[in-house]
Specification:
Length: 193
């Protein structure tokens, strides 16, 4: 049910954004038409409503498609996700504290689950903490370019490695919710579905 409500909200937001972007596009075309006129710009000027609807429809279809791409999909309702680069995403279920990476395994053979993480210079740094798995190591660094995983038994080892490689230390790692807000908040929240 939550997914349905979020999807309906998404459609309403796309409609509003498409209307605004369509008005802006018509305004730009009218300004451009004052300096250089052609048949298309004359038609836009004479029939603004028709073109507002047409542009709005095209823009809304584009925004709808974008909202399901890697760069625009933030998950629906209780399945939030964050793209972290190189086609990888950290996903969450029901807004719990645990984020997980699909198809990435630790040295124990388990999927990566983390409560605190940060991406810097194409490297995902985080703790290994799960409600389901019992990890033998406490922290990890995953190179997103090469899929090379380095694990650390202790926080001290991780912080030493982070310091030597200019990566975030354990006290700089953020929760899933903080990472989600940092990625999807601000101007993205206002300008994209």
């Amino acid at each position: 049910m939550e997914v349905l409500f979020h999807f309906i909200f998404q459609l309403i937001k796309i409609g509003i954004l498409a209307s605004i972007y369509s008005l802006m596009l018509i305004g730009i075309l009218l300004i451009f038409g004052k300096f250089k006129s052609n048949d298309f710009l004359k038609r836009v000027k004479s029939d603004k409503k028709k073109h507002w609807f047409s542009f709005g429809l095209l823009i809304s279809v584009g925004l709808f498609i974008f909202s399901f791409t890697y760069w625009g999909n933030h998950g629906l309702a209780d399945g939030p996700m964050i793209p972290i680069g190189h086609w990888e995403t950290i996903e969450n279920t029901n807004w719990t504290e645990y984020g997980h990476l699909k198809d990435q395994k630790t040295s124990d053979g388990n999927n990566i689950e983390t409560t605190k993480f940060k991406v810097t210079d194409d490297k995902l740094c985080g703790n290994l903490k799960s409600w389901f798995y019992d990890f033998k190591n406490s922290y990890f660094v995953l190179d997103l370019k090469t899929d090379k995983m380095t694990e650390f038994k202790t926080e001290f080892e991780f912080n030493e490695y982070a310091e030597n490689n200019k990566l975030p230390k354990s006290n700089e790692l953020l929760s899933f919710e903080q990472n989600y807000k940092n990625h999807w908040g601000g101007i993205r929240l206002l300008l994209l579905p």
